[in-house]
Amino acid sequence: MPKTIEAHKYHGYGNDFLIVWDGQVHADEHSEFSRAICRRHWGVGADGCVFLSPLKSNRYLYRIYNHDGSRAGFSGNGGRCACAFLHHFRLADREEILLETQSGDKRFLLLEAERPAWTYRCWLGEPDFAPDSIPFRPQSKESMGLERIVDHPLDVGDQTVRITALFMGNPQCQLLVKELPSDDTFRRLGAMLERHPAFPDRTNLGFVQVEGRHRLKLRIWERGVGPTQSSGTGSAASAVAAIVNGKADSPVEVHTESGLQQVEWSPGNPVVLTGQCRYVARIEYCWEPS
Length: 290
Prior knowledge:
Elements: E1 3-12, E2 15-21, H1 30-37, E3 48-56, E4 59-66, E5 71-72, H2 76-88, E6 96-101, E7 104-114, E8 117-125, E9 149-156, E10 159-167, E11 171-177, H3 183-194, E12 204-212, E13 215-222, E14 226-228, H4 232-244, E15 252-256, E16 259-264, E17 271-287
Parallel strand pairs: 2-3, 4-6, 11-12, 13-15
Antiparallel strand pairs: 1-2, 1-17, 3-4, 4-5, 6-7, 7-8, 8-17, 9-10, 10-11, 12-13, 13-14, 15-16, 16-17
């Protein structure tokens, strides 16, 4: 029996999400629903789907699924879009919102609201470099016993790349490069690294070009999605990777093809991400569960 589900579409610099409010889709159906509604051409189309439920005192349960229906722990842009939805429709009455995510609590502070755009500052927590946390599975004797994976050689097909891996609410693998890769190289390495045996839960990818101590250019391949125009956690991870490799200093402007986000971080402190999101549309989606 078809169901009509109300969703609202927002994007953070072209990284687009569908927000679904409490009670419309059963938790057991989140994956199937996300895969259907996010499908380009056949569904509405988006990089991911976020399900929100109220808890207490401006605290909300946040569950996010990728374009392919796989569960994600967190998304910086997706979290920002979720908060914009809550403020947009007056479901939150304070400037500060706490999202309870699979990757821990994330705090968002509204800095500016000029519909259809909202700007937030978000505390993402501390980056975790422990291989078990990412998770990262050693592929060589040189990888065994490492406390963190920083500027580490990894064989990919017939070449070796140097990676910095960390957990930033989701698995991240960052490659510091002299120049951003060509389309062919980007797609080939993105697909291979996302599903590399070193990453048993797959990983998100960032190709990072350092343009200055406070400026990076970033090209992103997201786990379960593929090429994306932007990523909040990816931007944060790229800045952290550049800092731990001695190539950049906080604060860092991270530029993608669709805009910039600011990242602040020093070791032992949470990563702070500042950026914008925009409202796109209200949708009544006709869903036919299998």
